[in-house]
Inverse folding.
């Protein structure tokens, strides 16, 4: 047992062989970080694809068994599933095995890890990487190159565990940031979950409009860009909305307050108020896409 | 005077030599639709660029004088400016001269044309074409290829005028739709003006958030796509918000009603209600980007 050559991992078990899981397995193998990879999942197609591409050495649907011989377990299933699987992983891995995840909401899984007494060997991670396609077929050993990965240690997380997980992501050419799970979830509520909700509601508004057909005929690149996220997976987003409920509600309320301000400015033809909102938007946009 | 060879125009005067005006002049010349083009504008740089690129034969800042010998005048200035210039164009063009525009709000200019007694020779147009860059330097003789162009005749517009303007755009390889100015403005409020406001308010919400710095650090492609429009020109959008005020307010209210529904669904963890909103969004998104 134990780590491989001080920096790598002897046996990495990836739970969920979708885009992120398969990419991580393949990227780690390609860079010599993992001696062996095992994929656990319910989708036989994803597992077979990831194996055929050389990203996984073994595949199974038996989570407990795969865990028995793991040095590193990466939960790469949807957020709610990962949360439910953590106890089983904890119960079936050796005490030296490190556990991490790639979920986009961190509070609940970090809390669950503490509840399970895993604070010493669980460290949550969230790679901000993705693409339009999903599944192992779209997996890419360079998916994390240049991506930001957030690690969410708590006060009992050891410096050594932080260092090992940081090293893992840096070897995949990602940029690593650390913050608390609460800080992560608060920021993500606005940077990711709010745009998702905005895209859904904008598209839903057009869907319900009496002029729907004309709106569709006249939708140009601006509408398409702003609603691109509306094509996203409903299962994933209903889970995220529930798991990050408090922070998302706060972001929804902030948006609503500004929306009401906008309505008032348009209604009263208050050009100064409208320009103030636009100036704030342009300032932020410049910071995000200089 | 009069038209050239039954299909083209002897002298086309383009007012405003920005992206749309310079592209239209160049596209028409490239296809032999215009024997001569004159650009009128306040920006000496745009005029010089469009002339150097061969899109304009002459340039001037004297609108009245340019109009005196025009067969076709195209108002390609910002919507409010075009509205203000229409009377001067009307007063200085021969009675046989056709007048059109390219503005993204149609109600006010169509009403102004009727007030000026121009119903027989004015026909509003809105090409749904653009690019990130602006100005004559970004002009492109193929800008309208495949683009949708909306013509907004009223009940006194002659079939011949509709046919001539339709032909003009079709010769530039655009797809022409006809509807009333009110129908256009109602649909655009949702298909174009609402996404613009959504992008502004989403970016403004992030700008005002206590976690602003972390939000900027964690903003990924979803946030960037959804706020892309927030970089848009404030002058143009304060004008549009005022000129299409009633339809925009209605679209803002429709969005607010669905936003409140979303808030309730998230707050009450009402998964069915959330899924219903998402399903509407995905249905519309599929219609817009199949």
């Amino acid at each position: 047992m134990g780590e491989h050559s001080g920096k790598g991992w002897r046996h990495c078990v990836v739970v969920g062989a979708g885009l992120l899981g398969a990419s991580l397995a393949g990227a780690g193998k390609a860079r010599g970080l993992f001696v062996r990879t095992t994929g656990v999942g319910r989708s036989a197609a994803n597992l077979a694809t990831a194996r055929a591409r050389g990203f996984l050495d073994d595949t199974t649907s038996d989570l407990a068994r795969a865990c028995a011989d793991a040095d590193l377990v990466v939960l790469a299933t949807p957020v709610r599933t990962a949360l439910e699987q953590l106890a089983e992983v904890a119960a079936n891995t050796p005490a030296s095995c490190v556990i991490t995840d790639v979920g986009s909401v961190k509070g609940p899984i970090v809390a669950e890890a503490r509840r399970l007494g895993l604070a010493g060997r669980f460290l949550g991670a969230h790679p901000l990487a993705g693409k339009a396609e999903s599944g192992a077929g779209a997996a890419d050993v360079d998916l994390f190159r240049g991506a930001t990965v957030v690690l969410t240690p708590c006060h009992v997380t050891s410096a050594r565990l932080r260092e090992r997980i940081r090293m893992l992501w840096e070897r995949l050419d990602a940029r690593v940031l650390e913050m608390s799970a609460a800080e992560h979830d608060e920021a993500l509520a606005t940077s990711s979950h709010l745009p998702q909700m905005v895209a859904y509601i904008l598209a839903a508004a057009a869907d319900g409009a009496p002029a729907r057909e004309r709106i569709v005929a006249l939708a140009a690149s601006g509408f398409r860009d702003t609603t691109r996220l509306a094509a996203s997976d409903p299962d994933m987003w209903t889970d995220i909305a529930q798991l990050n409920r408090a922070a998302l509600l706060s972001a929804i309320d902030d948006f609503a307050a500004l929306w009401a301000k906008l309505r008032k400015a348009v209604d009263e033809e208050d050009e100064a108020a409208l320009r103030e909102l636009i100036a704030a938007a342009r300032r932020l946009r410049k910071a995000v896409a200089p």
Summary: Residues 6 and 264 of chain B are 61 Å apart (CA to CA). Residues 184-288 of chain B form a domain with the 6-phosphogluconate dehydrogenase C-terminal fold fold (CATH 1.10.3660.10). Chain B has a mean pLDDT of 95. Chain B touches chain A through 89 residues (CB under 8 Å).
